[in-house]
Amino acid sequence: MTGIFGRLRRMQLHTQILIGLLLGAVAGPVLGDVAVRIKPLGDAFINLLIMVVVPLVMASLIVGTASLGDLRKLGRIGLKTVGYYVVATALAVALGLVAGQVFDPGAGMDADVKARMLSDYAGVTQEQLARVAEKPSIAELLVRIIPRNPFQAMAETNFLQIIFFALLFGVALTILSEQRRKPVVDVLESVNDAMIVLVKLVMRVAPIGVFALIAAVSAQFGYGVLLTLLKYVVVTIGTMVLFTVSFYPMSLYLSGMSPAFFFKRFYEVMVFAFSTSSSNATLPINLQVTEEELGVSNDVAAFVLPLGATVNMNGTAIYQGVSTIFIAQVFGIGLSAGDLLTVVLTATLASIGAAGVPGIGMVTLTIVLTQLGIPLEGIALVVGVERILDMTRTAVNVTGDTACAIWVAKTEGELRLPEATRQATDVARAS
Description:
The protein is mostly helical. Helix content is 82%, strand content 0%.
């Protein structure tokens, strides 16, 4: 037994996390209520990471902005980042719609299953309707980005407000003279370094936290609902995988980085994002890997990744595309080419505009269904497998954040490609 634990401790962290994930998935249904009771271990692990996120984002974003010096460079990076996110999200929605049309996941659903699910999840549907009713207009959203009290924004982990304040603070530092700016930047750099060390300490218990989270999920939901909606789940996850192995490698290739090298180094972050279902909780380890393993400068990573964790929703966009087709097919509603274009536009804007809203995937899906006149009760058909899909789309979202950071860094001359990456890329191009 001691030998087994010794070998586990010597394994790389991403391997330990993957083992924790697999053991949790298998043990959950076996342990039953016991698995649900150990979920607080996973919640405590998530809280530890969230504890680090705010000071890490604040320090890294302020230092990154102040280090840019040139405000025109900051604006250029901002435009590239937002443009990349919008294009990627629109393509993701379109791919989801195509997959839904080709594979017909909603065709032939058993009438009894449909009626039972509509009844069981009626309360959840009403909750989503209430959230949409509370969703602010674009003008109100822009106003809400500006924090009245930045400390309150930090306490509530309102990342749009935190990012806004950090950017303004960094811009203000660039206006100061070097003599007055340097002490503040030095302190914040030390804070950033300390937070990274703290992240590494917290990550030592990641396999235990992941095991507790996954075991609780598999124990609570089991595999019955998944089998009922298997075709829908397979099409949705398969489309996310297709996007991940097609669009992102294309972006990486244009950035001069070997996709094989990227996924080998980034695999740990993807597994962690899948396990936690939280882009924000994944942000500390994502920043660390993107800078230290993938060679993106702190200036770019500190700007692009926190923004992406808030507004970039490639996986969510695919989910909306497939889910819209699925629900429309269940209700026998045909969608015209104009309707499909409406889905692309609405889902793209909703994914970005609804940033920071709890239950973002379900909320934005409700917005899309409302726009098309599809019965909102259809949400009850997909909510049973929401957790499983949420885990997958979070991994896709986080991967998109880093792919964008690599591309922006390449275009800005801020990408330090390791020698192994150059060699792998040269081999790939030669073949």
